[in-house]
Amino acid sequence: MSDLRFDPARILSVGGEYDGLCGNEPYADRRAASVSDRIAFRFFVPRQIGAKRLTVSALSGDGSHETTFSLDWEGLFGAFDLYQVDLTGKLPVGLWFLSVYAETGIGRVWFHRAGGGGLSFSERAPSERESFQLTVCDFPKTDRADDAGAVYHIFVDRYRRGKNTPVPDGMEFVSDWESRDLEYPAYPGAPMKNNRVWGGNLSGVTEKLDEIKKLGATLIYLSPIFLSPSNHRYDTADYLTLDPLVGDEHDLAELIREAKRRGIGVLLDGVFNHTGSDSVYFNQKGRFSSVGACQGPSSPYYKWYNFHRFPDDYECWWDIPILPRINPDEPSCRSFFVGENGVIAHYAALGVKGFRLDVADELSDGFIREIKARLNECAPDNLLYGEVWEDASNKVAYGKRKEYYLGGELDGVMNYPFRTATLSYLRDGGTDALGEYIGEVMPNMPREVRDRQLNLLGSHDTPRALTALGGERENGRTVRELSGVKMTPEEYAVARKRLILAYLTSATFPGRPMIYYGDEAGTEGYADPMNRMPYPWGKEDETLLDAYRRIGRLRSDHPALLHGSFTLLHLDASLLAYDRNDGKSAVTVFINRSQSDLEVSFENKYKDKKQGRSQIRKFSLSPLSGAVLTESGMDVFS
Questions:
Q1: Of 53, 255, 331, 613, which cross-links 103 as Cys (Cβ 3.0–4.6 Å)?
Q2: Does some domain include residue 323?
Q3: Alpha-carbon distance 414 to 427, whole Å?
Q4: Range of the domain at 18
């Protein structure tokens, strides 16, 4: 069993130093534990308080259960008394909020977590945010070698045309691959046809598998490929039929087979919260031979939807009429997706590696658990990711605490907190978001989730990473107004260096680096639709492409980057430094985000083979560059 220890009075803070009091785990404030872990809750109390007895109260995440434990005095440490209680096996699987109080000569005093890792105290019980979060989870023990590589995210219509595929009626085919003839909303939120297509398809992805492999990718995540009347295909028309524009199941099977031959899995986008109104299931336009929900209560799909007033007033996703919401907890709907012959089993039988769940926070925990169970029944190493934009460990959606990280649901989420923190730091030098991520968000992740998170820098829902790192600010301008805005050569040069550092961070932080197609080639663009421009075949930024490939090789060569511990060494407006260590090897990363040379001095943990001792090492880090120190030497990225 591993030895998990908490040091709540010394929460990791920006620039702080680990004091060695909490065992061998330098990531001292881990706040997630397996049921098989030893959990020692340790607490340092200022002696000036005059504590006579210390108690920790554990409140379940849903507020339904509370239990208390007495802490034992362990000794003196400077101006602090150290108390401890062994919680091993005493808390069942679940999310818990721990609050501590002391009985003193003047009554009960509660301790509150404060900013920067400090403590405050008062007679008031702490809020949830001021308490100490602990997740007790139960993940199966697996050896996941395929977790090592990057994840390559493809918006299928804009990646690559392979063999000719038919253009369905109602679609407008853009023959010029490099055309910027995009559709823009008349006003924010205005309806659009989204029927302008470039014709990227599955055979096009298959043709470029060797290029994807060179990036160090071991997983491809495809945007939706099911039948749909739009180019984005988030308005599904038929879950069991592929859109003819992307190909057929033979094309999908060939992609899966050829990808597997190269050590790459294929992940599909699961849009199971809503369908299209123009679908087999809703059939609002009557284009399908099926009896859809719009044809009345006799439809087998009628109960999937919530009609306020039949047939025109119904519940929609974000009040968008073409996206009627379904209820996957309705028995026939749930069976359609997770039944023995349902959607999940159908595609798992074709060999897909798993699914990424669109708007996962709008799906019930029960439904997600059944998806995961069906996936793993088909293949134990199948994966399930979720779209969650916040800290998924304590997420509350629609008044209910989610259970993503308890085991049996998600293997990870799209790590938007990482994206926000990394881009903010590299562009502006602000440390707050990155410090928050390192000190608050990352410790809440169970190890099994932390090492599989999708560390993205951009997606089909965000501006391109290059633009976010170096382009003009949006400043309230519409997407149409921003459509012609591109970086100057000077801005682009800076943005490119920042993107290399961002991807280096993505690949060396805990989690899996995620590449949004074209980012590695120098694609610019603000929000949708500019962030979905075609891949620039033949016009790639070779400097960026080479850096992405080098970083991919770095990650595959050093196991410490896959499952090693994380220790923050330094963080300020100029320099970020951290260490990864798996007990057998270590990697130290330095990121100079400033426009100046930095002289770096640190204790080299790699012993001099002749001297047999540690050294103080010094080196110069050029502006907007990164250095990675390993046992074999130093790699520099700029």
A1: 53
A2: yes
A3: 21
A4: 3-137
Q: Count each helix (H run) and each strand (E run) in the chain, helices first.
A: 14, 34
Q: Determine phi and psi for 132, rounding to 5 degrees.
A: -105, 115
Whether the predicted pLDDT of 575 surpasses 60: yes
Nearest to 624 by CA among 447, 504, 483, 448: 504
Q: What is the pLDDT of residue 121?
A: 83
Domain count, the chain: 3
Q: Which residue has the tokens 């920042």?
A: 498
Would you call 607 helix, strand, or coil by DSSP? coil
Tell me the pLDDT tens digit for each residue of 136-172.
999 987 655 556 799 999 999 999 999 999 999 999 9
| Per-residue pLDDT tens over the stretch 509-561 | 999 999 999 999 999 999 999 999 999 999 999 999 999 999 999 999 999 99
Whether 379 maps to a domain, the answer reads: no
Instruction: Among 110, 137, 164, identify where a domain stops.
Output: 137
Both tokens assigned to 451: 């090492």
CATH value at residue 572:
2.60.40.1180
Amino acid at 194: N
Rounded CA-CA distance 409/422 in Å is 27
- In this structure, the number of other CB atoms found within 10 A of the CB of residue 371 comes to 26
SS3 state of residue 55:
strand
- Token pair of 242, please? 């592929």
DSSP 118-141: -EEEESSPP-TTTSEEEEEE-PPP
Task: Give domain status of residue 594, yes or no.
Answer: yes
98 belongs to a structural domain: yes
Question: Any idea how long the chain is?
Answer: 638
Q: Which tokens sit at 248? A: 């057929």
- Residue 111 vs residue 464, higher pLDDT: 464
Instruction: Give dist(CA 378, CA 366) in Å, integer.
Output: 19
Supply the CATH number for residue 299's domain.
Answer: 3.90.400.10
Position of tokens 């793993």? 376
